[in-house]
Amino acid sequence: MSRYFIEVGYKGAQYSGFQVQENAHTVQAEVDRALSILFRDKIESTGSSRTDAGVNAYQNFLHFDTELPLHPQFLYKINAILPEDVVLRGIYGVPPEANSRFAALSRSYEYTLYTRKDPFMKDRGYFFPYKIDIVALQAAATILKEYRDFSTFSKRNTQVKTFICAIEESYWTESEERIVYNVTANRFLRGMVRGLVGTMLRVGRGKLSLEAFRAAIESRDCTNADFAVPPQGLFLMKVRYPDNFLQPVDVV
Predict the structure, then answer these.
(1) What residue stretches are annotated with the Pseudouridine synthase I TruA alpha/beta domain (predicted)?
(2) Counted domains in the chain
Protein backbone atom coordinates (compact mmCIF):
# COMPACT_ATOMS: atom_id res chain seq x y z
CA MET A 1 0.00 0.00 0.00
CA SER A 2 1.43 3.36 -1.05
CA ARG A 3 0.45 6.78 0.29
CA TYR A 4 0.43 9.86 -1.90
CA PHE A 5 -0.11 13.57 -1.28
CA ILE A 6 -1.86 15.47 -4.06
CA GLU A 7 -1.76 19.23 -4.54
CA VAL A 8 -4.96 20.86 -5.73
CA GLY A 9 -6.28 24.32 -6.51
CA TYR A 10 -9.90 25.33 -6.89
CA LYS A 11 -12.42 28.11 -7.31
CA GLY A 12 -14.91 27.70 -4.50
CA ALA A 13 -17.94 29.56 -5.85
CA GLN A 14 -19.93 26.47 -6.83
CA TYR A 15 -19.10 24.36 -3.80
CA SER A 16 -20.52 23.89 -0.31
CA GLY A 17 -16.99 23.84 1.03
CA PHE A 18 -13.94 21.62 0.69
CA GLN A 19 -14.66 18.66 2.97
CA VAL A 20 -16.97 15.81 1.96
CA GLN A 21 -20.48 16.34 3.35
CA GLU A 22 -23.60 14.28 2.97
CA ASN A 23 -25.88 15.57 0.20
CA ALA A 24 -23.55 18.48 -0.63
CA HIS A 25 -21.38 19.41 -3.61
CA THR A 26 -17.80 19.67 -2.31
CA VAL A 27 -14.29 19.88 -3.73
CA GLN A 28 -13.06 16.79 -1.92
CA ALA A 29 -16.00 14.75 -3.26
CA GLU A 30 -15.03 15.75 -6.81
CA VAL A 31 -11.41 14.77 -6.20
CA ASP A 32 -12.41 11.41 -4.71
CA ARG A 33 -14.75 10.78 -7.63
CA ALA A 34 -12.00 11.52 -10.17
CA LEU A 35 -9.48 9.29 -8.36
CA SER A 36 -12.00 6.46 -8.10
CA ILE A 37 -12.79 6.66 -11.81
CA LEU A 38 -9.13 6.61 -12.81
CA PHE A 39 -8.14 3.78 -10.46
CA ARG A 40 -11.41 1.90 -11.02
CA ASP A 41 -11.44 1.45 -7.27
CA LYS A 42 -13.05 3.40 -4.41
CA ILE A 43 -10.63 6.08 -3.19
CA GLU A 44 -11.30 8.19 -0.10
CA SER A 45 -8.89 11.05 0.56
CA THR A 46 -8.02 13.05 3.67
CA GLY A 47 -7.60 16.82 3.37
CA SER A 48 -4.97 19.06 4.91
CA SER A 49 -7.14 22.15 5.37
CA ARG A 50 -10.89 22.64 5.30
CA THR A 51 -12.26 25.69 3.53
CA ASP A 52 -15.82 26.99 3.80
CA ALA A 53 -18.40 27.36 1.06
CA GLY A 54 -17.27 29.82 -1.61
CA VAL A 55 -13.66 30.02 -0.40
CA ASN A 56 -10.92 29.53 -3.00
CA ALA A 57 -7.56 27.77 -2.80
CA TYR A 58 -4.45 28.29 -4.86
CA GLN A 59 -2.87 25.38 -2.99
CA ASN A 60 -4.37 22.71 -0.80
CA PHE A 61 -3.34 19.10 -0.20
CA LEU A 62 -4.99 15.74 0.32
CA HIS A 63 -3.59 12.27 0.85
CA PHE A 64 -4.85 8.87 -0.25
CA ASP A 65 -3.69 5.24 -0.21
CA THR A 66 -3.69 2.70 -3.01
CA GLU A 67 -2.10 -0.62 -3.89
CA LEU A 68 -2.53 0.13 -7.59
CA PRO A 69 0.19 1.64 -9.80
CA LEU A 70 -0.09 5.25 -10.94
CA HIS A 71 -0.99 5.82 -14.56
CA PRO A 72 2.01 7.39 -16.39
CA GLN A 73 -0.34 10.20 -17.47
CA PHE A 74 -1.87 10.55 -14.01
CA LEU A 75 -2.03 14.37 -13.95
CA TYR A 76 -3.46 14.61 -17.45
CA LYS A 77 -6.06 11.90 -16.84
CA ILE A 78 -7.22 13.26 -13.47
CA ASN A 79 -7.51 16.82 -14.77
CA ALA A 80 -9.55 15.57 -17.71
CA ILE A 81 -12.03 14.04 -15.24
CA LEU A 82 -12.11 16.90 -12.72
CA PRO A 83 -14.50 19.84 -13.33
CA GLU A 84 -13.02 22.99 -14.85
CA ASP A 85 -12.92 24.83 -11.52
CA VAL A 86 -10.66 22.23 -9.84
CA VAL A 87 -7.06 21.46 -10.86
CA LEU A 88 -4.64 18.81 -9.64
CA ARG A 89 -1.17 20.39 -9.77
CA GLY A 90 1.07 17.59 -8.52
CA ILE A 91 1.40 14.24 -6.78
CA TYR A 92 4.04 13.36 -4.21
CA GLY A 93 5.31 10.20 -2.58
CA VAL A 94 5.37 10.26 1.23
CA PRO A 95 5.99 7.82 4.09
CA PRO A 96 3.00 5.52 4.79
CA GLU A 97 2.22 7.21 8.13
CA ALA A 98 2.30 10.77 6.73
CA ASN A 99 -0.90 12.78 7.21
CA SER A 100 -1.59 15.79 5.02
CA ARG A 101 -3.31 17.61 7.88
CA PHE A 102 -1.03 16.87 10.81
CA ALA A 103 2.27 17.03 8.92
CA ALA A 104 1.62 20.62 7.81
CA LEU A 105 3.74 23.23 9.58
CA SER A 106 1.65 26.23 8.58
CA ARG A 107 -1.08 27.56 6.31
CA SER A 108 -1.10 30.94 4.56
CA TYR A 109 -4.23 32.82 3.52
CA GLU A 110 -4.94 36.03 1.63
CA TYR A 111 -8.13 38.07 1.73
CA THR A 112 -8.55 40.55 -1.12
CA LEU A 113 -10.57 43.76 -1.18
CA TYR A 114 -10.94 45.73 -4.40
CA THR A 115 -11.87 49.39 -4.17
CA ARG A 116 -13.15 50.13 -7.69
CA LYS A 117 -15.88 48.23 -9.48
CA ASP A 118 -14.29 45.42 -11.49
CA PRO A 119 -16.43 42.62 -13.00
CA PHE A 120 -13.33 40.41 -13.32
CA MET A 121 -12.86 40.47 -9.53
CA LYS A 122 -16.43 39.51 -8.64
CA ASP A 123 -15.56 35.92 -7.70
CA ARG A 124 -12.04 36.67 -6.45
CA GLY A 125 -12.47 39.56 -4.02
CA TYR A 126 -14.76 41.72 -1.91
CA PHE A 127 -15.85 45.01 -3.47
CA PHE A 128 -15.17 47.55 -0.72
CA PRO A 129 -15.47 51.13 -2.11
CA TYR A 130 -15.18 52.86 1.27
CA LYS A 131 -12.61 55.13 2.85
CA ILE A 132 -10.35 53.10 5.08
CA ASP A 133 -7.47 53.90 7.44
CA ILE A 134 -4.61 51.63 6.32
CA VAL A 135 -2.46 52.63 9.30
CA ALA A 136 -5.17 51.49 11.71
CA LEU A 137 -5.64 48.27 9.75
CA GLN A 138 -1.93 47.55 9.91
CA ALA A 139 -1.85 48.26 13.64
CA ALA A 140 -4.73 45.82 14.22
CA ALA A 141 -2.97 43.15 12.16
CA THR A 142 0.21 43.59 14.21
CA ILE A 143 -1.71 43.32 17.49
CA LEU A 144 -2.94 39.85 16.51
CA LYS A 145 0.58 38.42 16.72
CA GLU A 146 0.62 39.18 20.45
CA TYR A 147 -2.16 36.69 21.14
CA ARG A 148 -2.56 32.90 21.10
CA ASP A 149 -6.19 32.30 22.09
CA PHE A 150 -8.47 33.14 19.16
CA SER A 151 -11.78 31.94 20.60
CA THR A 152 -13.33 35.28 19.56
CA PHE A 153 -12.70 34.48 15.90
CA SER A 154 -14.08 30.95 15.83
CA LYS A 155 -17.61 30.35 14.67
CA ARG A 156 -19.88 28.40 16.96
CA ASN A 157 -20.63 24.69 16.58
CA THR A 158 -16.99 23.79 16.11
CA GLN A 159 -15.54 20.53 17.40
CA VAL A 160 -11.97 21.69 18.06
CA LYS A 161 -10.42 20.97 21.46
CA THR A 162 -8.31 24.13 21.60
CA PHE A 163 -8.55 27.67 20.28
CA ILE A 164 -4.81 28.25 20.50
CA CYS A 165 -3.15 29.32 17.24
CA ALA A 166 0.35 30.66 16.59
CA ILE A 167 0.17 33.48 14.05
CA GLU A 168 3.53 33.90 12.30
CA GLU A 169 2.63 36.65 9.82
CA SER A 170 -0.20 39.18 9.87
CA TYR A 171 -0.12 42.27 7.66
CA TRP A 172 -1.95 44.24 4.98
CA THR A 173 -0.60 45.25 1.58
CA GLU A 174 -2.02 48.03 -0.56
CA SER A 175 -1.79 48.66 -4.29
CA GLU A 176 -3.68 51.06 -6.56
CA GLU A 177 -7.02 49.24 -6.40
CA ARG A 178 -6.35 46.30 -4.07
CA ILE A 179 -6.04 45.93 -0.30
CA VAL A 180 -4.93 42.45 0.74
CA TYR A 181 -4.68 40.85 4.17
CA ASN A 182 -1.91 38.26 4.49
CA VAL A 183 -1.86 35.82 7.40
CA THR A 184 0.14 32.69 8.20
CA ALA A 185 -0.37 30.43 11.22
CA ASN A 186 0.18 26.87 12.29
CA ARG A 187 -3.59 26.32 12.26
CA PHE A 188 -6.84 28.23 11.80
CA LEU A 189 -10.25 27.93 13.42
CA ARG A 190 -13.57 27.71 11.61
CA GLY A 191 -14.30 31.09 10.02
CA MET A 192 -11.21 32.60 11.66
CA VAL A 193 -9.71 34.54 8.75
CA ARG A 194 -13.01 36.08 7.72
CA GLY A 195 -13.64 36.97 11.38
CA LEU A 196 -10.25 38.65 11.61
CA VAL A 197 -10.81 40.58 8.37
CA GLY A 198 -14.35 41.68 9.20
CA THR A 199 -13.38 42.88 12.67
CA MET A 200 -10.24 44.67 11.44
CA LEU A 201 -12.31 46.42 8.78
CA ARG A 202 -14.38 47.91 11.60
CA VAL A 203 -11.13 49.30 12.98
CA GLY A 204 -10.13 50.63 9.57
CA ARG A 205 -13.52 52.29 9.16
CA GLY A 206 -13.23 54.01 12.56
CA LYS A 207 -16.09 52.00 14.06
CA LEU A 208 -13.87 50.16 16.53
CA SER A 209 -10.86 51.54 18.39
CA LEU A 210 -7.64 49.57 18.76
CA GLU A 211 -8.36 49.33 22.48
CA ALA A 212 -11.81 47.90 21.76
CA PHE A 213 -10.22 45.52 19.24
CA ARG A 214 -7.93 44.22 21.97
CA ALA A 215 -10.90 43.89 24.30
CA ALA A 216 -12.76 41.87 21.67
CA ILE A 217 -9.84 39.46 21.34
CA GLU A 218 -9.51 39.09 25.10
CA SER A 219 -13.25 38.54 25.56
CA ARG A 220 -13.02 35.12 23.89
CA ASP A 221 -16.60 35.72 22.74
CA CYS A 222 -17.43 35.28 19.06
CA THR A 223 -20.32 37.75 19.29
CA ASN A 224 -17.66 40.47 19.49
CA ALA A 225 -16.24 39.55 16.07
CA ASP A 226 -17.59 40.44 12.62
CA PHE A 227 -17.76 37.45 10.26
CA ALA A 228 -19.84 39.25 7.62
CA VAL A 229 -17.23 39.55 4.86
CA PRO A 230 -18.07 37.30 1.87
CA PRO A 231 -16.16 34.08 1.14
CA GLN A 232 -14.98 34.80 -2.41
CA GLY A 233 -12.27 37.21 -1.23
CA LEU A 234 -10.53 34.45 0.73
CA PHE A 235 -7.79 32.25 -0.75
CA LEU A 236 -5.82 29.46 0.88
CA MET A 237 -2.47 30.29 -0.71
CA LYS A 238 0.00 27.81 0.71
CA VAL A 239 0.29 24.76 2.95
CA ARG A 240 3.88 24.36 4.16
CA TYR A 241 5.52 21.04 4.99
CA PRO A 242 9.03 20.24 6.24
CA ASP A 243 11.84 20.62 3.70
CA ASN A 244 12.25 17.60 1.43
CA PHE A 245 9.10 16.03 2.85
CA LEU A 246 7.25 15.97 -0.48
CA GLN A 247 8.90 13.85 -3.16
CA PRO A 248 7.42 14.61 -6.63
CA VAL A 249 6.29 11.57 -8.59
CA ASP A 250 7.38 11.56 -12.23
CA VAL A 251 4.06 11.55 -14.05
CA VAL A 252 2.53 13.91 -16.60
Answers:
(1) 148-242
(2) 2
